[in-house]
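Cross-check.
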Amino acid sequence: MSMRTPVIQPSCTFSHTGETHFFGEKLTVHTTQSAYCCADSTLFMNHDDHVRLLSSAVQPGAAIWADLGSGTGAFTLALADLLGPEGTIYSVDQDRGALTAQRKAMERRFPASRVHYLTADFTARLALPQLDGVVLANSLHFVSSKESVVRLVMSYLRPGGQIVLVEYNTDAGNRWVPCPLSFDTWRELAGRCGLMATRKLAAVPSRFLGEIYAAQSMAART
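Predicted model, tokenized:
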């Protein structure tokens, strides 16, 4: 596998929705979304790393979560591991093939998990129940108009629900990760949208863009 130096773009020039993504060499890292972004995931992260990024926010039990832009399911599998068989997961991605691969992995590793697979664009309104939590793992950095999408995602949350963002800790993108947002930028955006108590949960090094972090932001309880 050859490693290419990322090409830094001056600005985000397009939006994407988080189907199957490839970052030069397939980074299933933080995101599950597909397994993309770069070799960060494939070479340096495994299931335990994905679980660790989410573990401070996801508790076992009968909670309902969605993984938006889930791809081949690195973080969907982490959710299943953390929630246990009593939890319910809605896994959403535009790439039907990625979801098929994800389903096979789920049936092999966590056969008792309850997962609903939706082939859809998460930047459009979805038919979802009220959710306890949403994972956006390397999917938001394909969206240029982030605020409207964050507000849409918030509309699915029950009072006191949460969004867990997994993202590169930089505001300078490249052709594979066009529109990342640093933790400080996410905290500002989350606050502008009405999310509260944004905190950084965990982080891992990134070979290409410095750091990948997980952050938790809470919806109001009323």
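The chain has a mean pLDDT of 84. DSSP finds six helices and seven strands in the chain. Passed to J.P. for a second look.
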